[in-house]
Amino acid sequence: LEVYxxxxxxxxxxxxxxxxxVLFFFGFQFALQAISSFLMVGLEHxxxxxxxxxLEGMAAVHLLMVVMIVLTVLCSAxxxxxxxxxxxxxxNLE
Length: 94
Hints:
By secondary structure, the chain is mostly helical. About 75% of the residues lie in helices and about 0% in strands.
């Protein structure tokens, strides 16, 4: 979805469609990394890691997997919306 969103965004311009698609791909990667870094720093300042959950090994792994699945679904939804909007509103096939 990330590649498709970058392609749909890059191809909505008149010139340099492939170059802009590659730039948008790296831009999306940079934005995702920046948001992830800001979230990690914000969670570190909230001392969320010092809470006493008292989880056993497999329970902690399952909790981490659920969190990662939710984050992946959220990122995929954002990329889907970007792709859908760009294909419906901006794509000129003439």
